[in-house]
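During the practical work, I worked with a single protein chain and the tokens that describe its fold, as given directly below.
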Amino acid sequence: MSKPAQLTTLMILKPCSDKKAFNEIAKIEQSLTITDSIKSGELIVSQGSKLDIVKEIIKIVEFYLEIVGKKMEKYQIQILSGDLYDKFRNDTLEDIILMFKMIRTGDLGKPPYSESFHEKVMSYVPMFFDHKSAERERLIEIKKRERRKSINNPPAPQKMSDEAYAKFTELENRLSNPIKKNREVFSIKGVLESVDQYLDNLPETCQKLSNSDLKYEIRRTQYNNKTAYEILLQEEQRRKDDKHNRRRKGNKDEN
């Protein structure tokens, strides 16, 4: 019997009123980690329309305001939630909950001073992404070590059963006149090593891709190579942050 599907954060929050949503968010954030978000979180962009998701982000923002005792106008909360959607659309709702928790606990450090609460929250976003990126790199390195260990220490071959041996013998007897030709021997170890090399080089090689090629590679790897997909998403976010930082620097220079 198949296991029931695990409830996502969106599925938990959607039917909740504001006060009940606060209780659910409090439960979620108590045990939530960035590792959980990276490994099992669902991308916001894949979970529904922007309007539907922003409604749930509003509940997360209101929960944070309630905890820290701050007040914002309703329209200000809506604008902030929309901006957070745009920044986190390729990440998860869990990431937004985690960011606010880390702001509250001081784990993200201090951002540049800002009089506007909206700007202050948004200035934490790249700091959170840097933190998440470092954690993702750590997980990728662990996976690499595990792959190398499995390659260098393969499991012992199992003994062939009597039934399998009989079938093998029958097949061997049938092939009395095999066609001899040069051919490349298929090697599992060779395939795994080539995959490892691809992933090792990807953080550098993906920087040379055009934006359109990068988007294509993201779509191509989304469902068949989670590690590559995460690396490519990280590169896409880096380009967005670089573009944003250049624009901000240009505005400062003009002033």
